[in-house]
Design a protein that fits this description.
nine-stranded mixed β-sheet, alpha/beta
Length: about 270
Amino acid sequence: MLAHYLTIKYGFSCYFFITFATVMKFIAIIPARYASTRFPGKPLAVLGGKTVIERVYEQASSVLDEAYVATDDERILAAVESFGGKAVMTRTDHKSGTDRIQEAVEKIGTDADVIINVQGDEPFIQPSQIETLMQLFDDPETQIGTLGKPFESIEAVENPNSPKIVTDNRGFALYFSRSVIPFIRGKEREEWFGQYPFLKHLGIYAYRREVLAAVTRLPQSSLEKAESLEQLRWLQNGYRIRVGLTDVETVGIDTPEDLRRAEAFL
């Protein structure tokens, strides 16, 4: 929440302070492609009697008054509209979900202050996680927000498919990597887990609307190409990413095997 203060003087010594609170407006946009190398059509896969995309939409809508699915496929559009959701068609040639979200923002014509990117394959995203992201923007220095969760084992830390985050003392990201960071000098590898609170990156983002427009115009950076992590493009260009903390584990769905695991989780 942003607060603006007005001071009114009566006579010589009487002051009244009137606070006008301006509530920030948030909108969730859920990118959802039909084509996927590992799991074609996964937004329409059925999980516990509902499609994956419906479950994601329900979770986002439980916190935010406005949510849209941004898709490139008429089947997903029809599915979203059939359960009463809002959807917008976007181009098929976007290289990232961030680019798809920016097109959706332009088509919707939203005046939201902050755009929340909820991944279309995260049916278990929790309201508390979305609320944590929103709270990051109470600080006007936050340009982009994301989430981190403590790792639970050194084996998980060493998985290159789980990006790691290191932050400064105020919670702003210093770097993201698929490698184990930081390196623990003077200790054997099996001792590392107890020496530092390794932080796992969860792929949910929020952007101030003007920042989203700016970062989607940036060319790929050398660090992004090296690690295949889009957020490094933003860091390398000087944007500040605030990291909120969560203890909630989510189950992303990238493959049919993940769907079966999600069924068990559900």
